[in-house]
Design goal:
The structure holds 3 protein chains of 3 kinds.
Chain A (H helix, E strand, L loop, with lengths): L1 H11 L1 H9 L2 H22 L13 H28 L2 H32 L8 H22 L4 H15 L2 H11 L21 H33 L4 H9 L1
Chain B lengths: L1 H4 L5 H41 L1
Chain C lengths: L2 H33 L1 E2 L1 H5 L9 E7 L5 E2 L6 E6 L4 E6 L12 E8 L4 E9 L8 H12 L1
Classes of the chains: A mainly alpha, B mainly alpha, C alpha+beta.
């Protein structure tokens, strides 16, 4: 228990956060790349074609993990936004702002691959239905968080607080995206994997495996990208502190 | 091998999605390394100024 | 105005504009897609907007797809197992358009009670499986 508490306090202080996460970057990137290569080869060549959609369903192996990440990362932004807003923790500010670019990228990827999947299957690139519209609004939220921050970037603490406020308000969009296909009639199908068991979703292991591998790969890549940016964020905002200058004397 | 790469009439859509995925990851990877490099240069320049 | 202030003002107004555009998109999308989404039962009870295009969603009835003679038009029946509506359409059908599958059509009701579709979208479910598994399931259902 003591170790966990100690770890928690260490991660809350910028110098130890910088030092500890520095060791994680390389392993995270290697894991992400290996899993991506394995997952995509498995999904593109070894998973069987779908009985209705043929080979086109393989878009799922990037579309679905990207969509999960777009929501997962926003959730992280929201939670660290609350921590940053209430407890004024610098590391939480760093995590929040470091998550935004990669989250926005995953959201854009979700929308674009969804369009490429929708055209051959549904018959249209885009339909203004609840799922697609709420995902587009998620992209606007990411851009909004980054936009507010850069409007005040001469005062990082204030900028982070305002960005956190936007992020927290935007959290309301997450349940809307998740349940949009159930609450409203939508062209979009339901969830590909039902955690509670149930009768719908993918049952075939050879189709499920690449999906889960890609879900892991994108998680690792997110961690890599986020920690990398968070470390830069701390260096930038703490430039005047002695721990930053020490970093550069040692190197 | 080449027949395995063929997604029939969905070639454009499937490979287009894969290309987009690769492109987005590459953009992120390159941009975060460029940012870091720039920042390090900036901080070093600042340190030299304050030391002299 | 200082450059920082100017930049700040521009960025904040951009964010506000973004939020406004997002809300506007959300509201119009909802009005079009949720309020004007009708089932065949609703259409048969004359509960649909006239002289305005709306969405008709349901299943394509088995054995109802036919090509009209001397034209490129096709006709099929959309059903929700309570009521049927005949739909006429000219154009390319999506790959997943199949009898017995879900479909969303966008168009207007004609005076002869035929729905003239401008757009036909196929709906699919989340049950992905290889063809062999689907075949086994199919024979199980038939037995």
């Amino acid at each position: 228990m003591n170790k966990i508490v100690k770890f928690y306090h260490e991660m809350g202080s910028p110098p130890s956060f910088y030092r500890i996460t520095g060791h994680w970057l390389k392993p995270l990137l290697i894991l992400a790349l290996l899993l991506t290569v394995y997952g995509l080869i498995d999904g593109l060549f070894f998973a069987p074609p779908d009985y209705q959609q043929g080979d086109s369903y393989r878009i799922m192996f990037v579309h679905v993990p990207a969509a999960w990440m777009s929501m997962f990362i926003y959730f992280i932004i929201g939670v660290s936004g609350i921590i940053a807003f209430v407890w004024r923790m610098k590391v939480a500010e760093a995590v929040m702002m470091a998550s935004a670019p990669i989250g926005a990228l995953f959201t854009a990827l979700t929308l674009l691959t969804g369009m490429l999947w929708g055209k051959p299957m549904w018959g249209t690139y885009w339909d203004w239905d609840a799922r697609m519209t709420s995902e587009l609004i998620l992209l606007f939220l990411y851009i909004g968080v980054m936009g507010i921050y850069s409007a005040y970037d001469d005062d990082p603490r204030k900028a982070a607080r305002l960005a956190a406020l936007v992020a927290i308000i935007g959290l309301i969009n997450l349940p809307i995206i998740r349940y949009s296909v159930e609450w409203w009639t939508s062209i979009h199908q339901g969830a590909s994997i039902s955690i509670m068991g149930g009768n719908s979703g993918i049952k075939e292991w050879s189709m499920l495996r690449p999906l889960l591998v890609m879900a892991l790969a994108t998680k690792f890549y997110y961690l890599y990208s986020m920690l990398h940016r968070a470390r830069s964020y701390l260096l930038r905002t703490e430039q005047n502190k002695s721990w930053v200058s020490k970093q550069f004397i040692e190197n | 091998m080449l027949t395995m790469l063929d997604m029939g009439k969905y070639n454009f859509f499937v490979w287009g999605s894969m290309a987009l995925f690769a492109l987005m990851m590459a953009v992120d990877l390159i941009s975060l390394h460029r940012q870091k490099k720039q920042l390090k240069r900036q901080i070093k320049a600042r340190q030299r100024r304050t030391q002299s | 105005m200082t450059p920082t202030r100017k930049k700040r003002l521009i960025l904040i107004s951009l964010v506000i504009m973004g939020v406004a555009v997002a809300t506007a998109i959300f509201l119009t999308a909802f009005k079009d897609n949720i309020m004007f989404f009708k089932s065949p039962t609703e259409v048969s009870q004359n509960d649909y907007p006239e002289n305005r295009s709306f969405r008709l969603g349901g299943m394509v009835k088995e054995g109802s797809l036919q090509r009209l003679e001397n034209s490129l038009k096709i006709q099929f029946t959309v059903t929700d197992y309570g009521a049927d509506v005949t739909v006429e359409y000219e154009g390319i059908l999506p790959d997943l358009f199949r009898e017995g599958q879900g479909v969303v059509t966008i168009g207007q009701m004609r005076s002869d009670n035929i729905f003239a579709a401008e757009e036909v979208l196929a709906k699919h479910d989340e049950n992905y499986m290889p063809p062999e598994v689907a075949d086994v399931l199919q024979t199980e259902v038939q037995q």
